[in-house]
Amino acid sequence: MITSLPATTEEMSAAHKYYEPVVYAGADHAFMRLGSNPADTNPANAAAEQAGLKRLKKELRQSFVR
After folding, report:
1. Residues in contact with 45: Cβ distance below 8 Å, sequence separation at least 6, in sequence order
2. pTM value?
3. Under 8 Å CB-to-CB from 6, ≥6 apart: which residues?
4. Quick one: DSSP state of residue 27?
5. Is residue 25 a contact partner of residue 44, using CB atoms and an 8 Å limit?
6. Which of 18, 45, 56, 62 qualifies as a cystine partner to 34, CB 3.0-4.6 A?
7. CB 19 within 8 Å of CB 7
8. What's the rounded Cα separation, in Å, for the pair 38 and 45?
9. Which residues contact 12 (CB under 8 A, 6 or more apart)?
10. Cα–Cα separations (whole angstroms), residue 52 to 11, 28, 42, 65
11. In this structure, what are the phi and psi dihedrals at residue 26, rounded to the nearest 5 degrees?
């Protein structure tokens, strides 16, 4: 687990801001950039990139529901 998550979650809650952290197991920092690189040897980065994009699309769709 990332050590800053509890404090960040608490601060976002205190600020009444939406914050739902997701940690993709095995993925490196900057996995969105790494996951699209064919030379990257960590399959978790590509999986995290796809899962992250799917989540982003879902969040965007929900943001614009009237």
Report:
1. 27, 28, 31, 34, 35
2. 0.74
3. none
4. P
5. yes
6. 45
7. no
8. 11
9. 18, 19
10. 23, 13, 16, 20
11. 80, -10
Which tokens go with 26? Answer: 């095995």
Nearest to 49 by CA among 26, 66, 19, 17: 26
Amino acid 44 reads A
Q: What is the pLDDT of residues 25-58, one digit of tens each?
A: 998 888 888 888 889 899 999 999 999 999 999 9
Q: How far apart are CA 60 and CA 28, in angstroms?
A: 24
- Return the structure tokens found at 63: 């943001």
Q: Which amino acid is at 64?
A: F
Residues 6-10, mean pLDDT to the nearest whole number: 94
Contact assessment for residue 23 and residue 41, using Cβ atoms and an 8 Å cutoff: no
